[in-house]
């Protein structure tokens, strides 16, 4: 027999001096959902490690939404008229699900409490099956489901934990459109815990069912809600000359650019924001403040021998050298740090650079300007680096 129960309990936080008791509550355009979080902060080798959204390696049960058979089609119900209190599912009239067991009448949780855990117990067996999660294959029947609707009043991390004895239990999150099998969200089978980020203005629906037509049985769902220190996990901002990473929403990590910071990127990080240098100067900062968008493996002109492009999977610094005159000597020195790098001079800054002078065997490059014009210098690490970098650029006058 289907049943559903709900309770709230508060989490212990650092600001509390004692534990709070369990409290019963009755029986009743940043990115929206970021379906990942870093599990090993020390493994972060640079900004790109936190900026992308590849599928979690742990979520082996996740499937491509395109493989979803969709919610049960109602083509068979076009000519079926059901009585009050019934609905048509695949051509047959069945009793309407009780509250909490369909998208039409989900369990209305309301706004999740920051710093608290909402606990739900249910058993949807005996209810009609009205939808199919994207974890299910098109030709598989699925079980009845329980559906929970909730929102948040401020950006939050939500941890969903599902325990139960049923076979092939599935959790699916849908945003804004519960009945839309292609709505934004995720689906997990065989993964008991999922962490995601929730934002105000979005209605979330969490669906629990069993794959195929297995019995769901008794289950308990816990939704633990944590406050975000920063509300755009994986994004970057600037704090003076530092680039700041919003790490998992729980921590702001600051990295010294040493060159200046604009719009969340260090100056000198890409061709578009190459750091302009018009006089001799030395730059020091942290490698982790920079990305590694350029790899010189397809640029043989950027090697000492000129025949094979050097592989540079690490971070690079790019400098703009405008208005140079023929005969001037530019010396780029990257020997003060311990990071092996390729040093190149380019007449244009491109994704696949062409160098007019380069070295991948020395830490210093001396370049005599052949003709008046604008040039660029690149210092590209062979591998991703941590620690501090140091680059000196000396620009001599003609004849010196």
From TrEMBL:
Region described as Disordered: spans on this chain: 24-76
Keywords, alphabetical: Signal
The protein's name in its UniProt record: Peptidase C-terminal archaeal/bacterial domain-containing protein
Signal peptide range in chain numbering: 1-19
Organism field: Lujinxingia vulgaris
Compositional bias ranges of the Acidic residues kind: 37-76
């Amino acid at each position: 027999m289907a049943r559903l129960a709900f309770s709230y309990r508060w989490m212990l936080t650092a600001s509390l001096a004692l534990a709070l008791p369990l409290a019963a509550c009755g029986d009743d355009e940043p990115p929206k959902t970021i379906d990942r979080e870093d599990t090993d902060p020390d493994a972060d080798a640079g900004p790109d490690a936190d900026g992308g959204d590849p599928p979690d390696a742990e979520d082996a049960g996740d499937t491509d939404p395109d493989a979803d058979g969709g919610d049960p089609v109602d083509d068979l119900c076009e000519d079926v008229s059901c009585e009050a209190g019934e609905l048509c599912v695949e051509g047959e009239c069945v009793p309407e699900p009780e509250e909490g067991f369909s998208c039409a009448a989900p369990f209305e949780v309301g706004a999740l409490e920051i710093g608290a855990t909402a606990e739900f117990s249910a058993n949807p067996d005996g209810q009609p099956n009205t939808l199919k999660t994207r974890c299910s294959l098109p030709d598989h029947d699925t079980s009845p489901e329980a559906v929970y609707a909730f929102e948040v009043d401020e950006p939050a991390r939500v941890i969903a934990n599902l325990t139960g004895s049923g076979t092939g239990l599935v959790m699916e999150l849908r945003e804004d459109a519960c009945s839309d099998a292609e709505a934004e969200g995720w689906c997990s089978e065989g993964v008991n815990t999922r962490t995601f980020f929730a934002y105000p203005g979005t209605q979330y629906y969490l669906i629990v069912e069993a794959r195929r037509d297995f019995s769901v049985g008794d289950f308990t769902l816990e939704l633990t809600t944590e406050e975000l220190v920063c509300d755009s996990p994986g994004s970057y901002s600037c704090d003076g000359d530092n680039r700041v990473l919003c790490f998992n929403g729980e921590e702001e990590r600051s990295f010294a650019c040493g060159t200046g910071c604009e719009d969340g990127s260090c100056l000198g990080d890409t061709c578009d924001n190459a750091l302009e240098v018009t006089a001799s100067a030395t730059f020091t900062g942290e490698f982790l403040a920079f990305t590694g968008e350029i790899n010189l493996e397809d640029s043989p002109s950027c090697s000492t021998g000129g025949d094979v492009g050097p592989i540079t999977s690490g971070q690079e610094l790019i400098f703009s050298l405008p208005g140079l005159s023929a005969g001037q000597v530019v010396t780029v020195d990257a020997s003060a740090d311990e990071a092996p790098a390729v040093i190149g001079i380019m007449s244009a800054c491109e994704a696949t650079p062409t160098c007019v002078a380069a070295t991948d065997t020395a830490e210093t490059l001396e370049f005599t300007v052949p003709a008046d014009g604008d040039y660029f210098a690149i210092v590209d690490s062979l591998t991703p680096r941590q620690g501090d970098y140091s680059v000196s650029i000396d620009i001599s006058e003609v004849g010196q």
